[in-house]
Amino acid sequence: FFFVFVFFRSTVRVALFMDPQLCNIPVGCTIPKTTVESGQSGWVTGTGHHFNVRQGPNYGKTGKKEPSKECMYTLVAVDMFRTESRIVPISQMLSRPTLSPHAAAFKHEHVPSIFVMHVQLPDYSPSIFGHKDDGPSIQIVFFFEITVETVKAFENLAAAEPCYRLLEEYFTKAPADPKFRGRFKMIGQVRSDWAGTSLPSMLETYNGKPVLITQSGALHNGPEPYMKEMSINVHAFSFIARRALNGMREKFQLQDVDFGAVIEARSDAEMNERMLCAARLLYIDPFSSPEILPETAEWFREHAPAPGPKQSK
């Protein structure tokens, strides 16, 4: 069986067809690639320059930040789904992106050619009482491919910028070291002028500010040796953060938003920071995403290619 998504304007139909060779959802089938100039909804490859990151030396004293150099991974696909509960990991349910020649040739014991950032947003109004870490969800799945520049840096890692050695250290240590894994930072920022967004003023404080993903993050091996998936459970965020995000519910589709991630540098030997990956989403409404029904999710758990062993939780 495999999924085919048929688009009729804003309506998405889901159909099942029998095919014993295929048992996953085509990657990139729910959110199209677009351009800023077109004004159409979709995703655009993010740029590191849109994010301010730590600069050395003596960051602890200076607090200096400047726009990042280009990302170490580049966006190749985005998908969004609604589900009755979180599906983690999710990458085994989707087909694999076609690797560029440089990414296909890249081989490393720990550093992936494809990095998946999987964000699970609550699809319900948060309550200050009875906090939970699961429930109806929006599954946002970003697929990033290692860049040519990053591959070249790994050819002589000793002479490369510190950010590349930190990248290797992260993927080597993070599976067994929760503290090191907690150096993963996610950044979201609305690019529009805030006064014209009609978004809650309380959200402006968080705009463009990095959030450390500690207990809410889990790192998984993907269904292929060259893939790793970072799962970020927003259900586990604080009530204030979840309430602020829920305040965007009716206005998200009107926004031009950047999302990105960076591994936190702390010592001068690790500076300067460099964005790991970035995505730009234009006028997308995640709350009207196609739904994966519970019985379908269960079917996938039974039939989809099994992921590698979970690396952290």
Residues in β-strands, percent? 25-35%
Termini gap: 31 Å
Q: Report strand order across the widest sheet.
A: 3-14-13-9-10
Backbone shape: globular
Largest sheet: 5 strands, antiparallel
Low-confidence stretches: 1-22, 308-313
Kindly name the structural category: alpha+beta
Question: What is the gyration radius calculated from CA atoms?
Answer: 19 Å
Residue-averaged pLDDT, rounded? 86
Q: Give the helices and strands as they follow along the chain.
A: EEEEHEEHEEHHHEHEEEHEEH
The total of helices stands at 8
Number of strands: 14
- Helix fraction bin: 10-25%
How would you characterize the overall build of this protein?
The chain has 313 residues and is α+β, with helices and mostly antiparallel strands. Helix content is 18%, strand content 29%. It is built from 8 helices and 14 strands. The protein has helices spanning 59-62, 101-105, 148-155, 162-173, 178-181, 201-204, 239-246, 294-303, and strands at 2-8, 11-17, 42-45, 52-54, 65-67, 73-83, 114-122, 137-146, 184-190, 211-212, 217-221, 227-233, 256-263, 275-282. The strands form 4 sheets. Strands 3-14-13-9-10 form a 5-stranded antiparallel sheet. The protein has a 5-stranded mixed sheet with strand order 6-8-7-12-11. The protein has a two-stranded antiparallel sheet with strand order 1-2. A hairpin with a 2-residue loop joins strand 1 and strand 2 (11-17). The protein is globular and about 50 Å long. It starts with a strand and ends in a 10-residue tail after the last helix.
